[in-house]
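=== Discrete structure encoding ===
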Amino acid sequence: MNKNLYLFLAKHQGLRRELSVKNEEREEALRRFEKEQETEVPYAWLEKQVLVHETVIQGCRCVILSGKTGAADRAVLYLYGGAFLTGAKALDFQLGAYLAKNTGQDVWILLYPLFPKHLIHESAEAVLEAMKRMAGHYDRHHITWFGFSSGASLCMYAWMMNRRESRCVPMPERMILNSPVLRVPVSEEEKRRMEAVQDDLLPPVFFSEEGLCGMMVSRDMAYSYLGDVLSFPLRYFPETDLFFGTNECLRIFLEEFEEKCAKEHISLHVQEGKGLWHCYGLDPRTPEGKAAWMEYISLLKRAGSV
């Protein structure tokens, strides 16, 4: 294991323990997570790299990054990961600035509402409101949704809500999704399959009924369909680039998702990182992460040329 990868994994071991809580342990864990939910935007660093503008969308801050030449006619809606429990981190803003500088597109980083003060459907509502705002500035064909982990799931949940609730919000032509959650809560059999995967970052219990993710779904029963992408009709789902590491437990749903997309004629492009972990493309300090950043640029330039 290279040194950078070792440091990356070591940094996340504390998070793995926090995500392993279940049943009566969850309330105390949530109180600890709430202390990490305020996002500190690195304005001084960002302003040296890109143009920075901030707006408010449905009560949420949204940081908009543009190249030094000014606002563009194409854009990315960036949704960070954090299990719906923690805010955006420095790496999210670094990647956002990198995308803005190297694609010629604006990057909207939406600081969406987090659990437990807000339920998952409220996060999805904020995404739809952001898309409405973006559609007033850009043609929807020139907008890409880009997400990591819970942010990648949120891309899918917002699309699902738009369809189920007949919101009629214009949808993007393309999504770039890193390690989304495709079904929660998992069954006991699915949990056993997850436990068989050598995942050093995510504990399978997090996705179970007694885990934190199960709590999120149980508190939002009117929108419980959002937790099961694999059972939702995906006709007209945008063209999607999907990134998974082979060493992450969420990958157990990949084959089922590929089959579903093929059956429903969804254009899906899968990139699997051999021996890699959850959201490996977020951290450029590893060779694999750096290569992923270059791939994101390629994909966004391709999307922006439509």
Remarks:
- The longest helix spans residues 287-304.
- The radius of gyration is 18 Å.
- Residues 160 and 262 are 18 Å apart (CA to CA).
- The chain is about 40% helix and 15% strand.
